[in-house]
Amino acid sequence: MPISNQIDLLDLVSKYNVPGPRYTSYPTALQFTNEFDSASLLDGLYSGHQTPKSLSLYIHIPFCHSLCWYCGCTKVITKDPASADKYIDYLEKEIKLSLSTIHPDSDIKQIHFGGGTPTFLLPEQIYRLGDIINRFYKLHPDIEFSVEIDPRRVHEGHIQALKEIGCNRASLGVQDTNEEVQKAIHRIQPFEQTKRITELLRNAGIQNINFDLIYGLPKQTLSTFRETLKNVLSIDPDRLAIYSYAHMPARMPSQKLLNEDDFPSTRDKLSMLIYAVDTLPHSGYVFIGMDHFAKSNDELSKALHNETLQRNFQGYSTHADLEMIGLGMSSISQNSAIYRQNEKELYAYYSTLDSDNLPIQKILELTDEDRIRKNIIMQIMCKAELNFDRLSENFGINFQSIFKDELNRISELESDGLIIQSENGFRITKTGRLFLRNIAMVFDSYLSQHRNKKAYSRTV
Ligand code: SF4
Q: Could you give all domains of the chain from N- to C-terminal order, each with its CATH number?
């Protein structure tokens, strides 16, 4: 049965549309601290050197040619291609310094170039970065290598270079195909351009194609959103990420350039999400969770089915269990004990590397309690269910006794039709899958510290 027929969702939205984390990690980046002892941090990192591991590499390329007004990413606006030469010099330096934190037999199973705009790099700069990666790391033969592509800033030379350095998945930023919406967000990208670049990628052998869309942008209506979805489905992407626009002008100053009178109402915004969730399965897509959809034969759908789906700083992933090495300005690295984030300003990133130090700005050391809550929250986000007995067994705890308060609070979620409880757990309903963040928030012990700080986007 379509979600739209099940319940009066608007009432639920007015109750649950509150600021909350997206849970790409737990604890979230707001818990990171810049008060840490570098020497003991490095000791901890170097001790990771003892055993070979499979790793995921994230490389942040911060440069963009022009500013999209809705953007919440860490970026540097410039038109100077030489900026990227200097940046790659520093990436190489960071790689050399960080090599001693991993065992020489560790291999890389996943690479992701994110941004900013990775295709800001010229083809020769892409070849150079690929060569550096190959020189310093051992790559797994079945590596997943994905790159975020701005269709407005890419040509055959980029695509050839990406293919030759091993890229096998492309994520294209589309956002919306309607011209009025594109003008309102300062990102003009004719749909024909997106279509042509997708064809070029496929012809070059980069067959796995993701599209990123956003709902809740100025000038969007249900009708323009349906048209956007129809357009992108005509190119048959393997995955669709349909993100809720997060309006946080206090934290993202460029969003002040958007005309607030042009935003769709909460009702219209919700109708776009419901339209996607209700109709995409008819086109062969599985609702993975929150904002992700994938073809039923895609690895993400298989991971959901096999209960191996994970979540990391980039969203849903089939490889999120891997230790992550983040390189470049603002990147986050993660292992089971520590999260650490690089300097978020280019100047600070360069100057720390100039003094031969890893450019770490903030860290978080996970406690035992963090690890248990992280597991709970990731199960809610990825499996849409929780089994109390399994958690008790896995962590050697009495789940029902430790999480007594949380379990009292979830009965309200059940009355609202978001979960169904059983003797030793609960499962999340189809309606509840629209409110995964709210359900996870019950188990977040840090939330009260940030509730009034405009730190998070709204959950719907
Ligand atoms: S949306 Fe992408 S291309 Fe636009 S400014 Fe942000 S990072 Fe750059």
A: 1-26+368-460 (1.10.10.920), 27-365 (3.80.30.20)
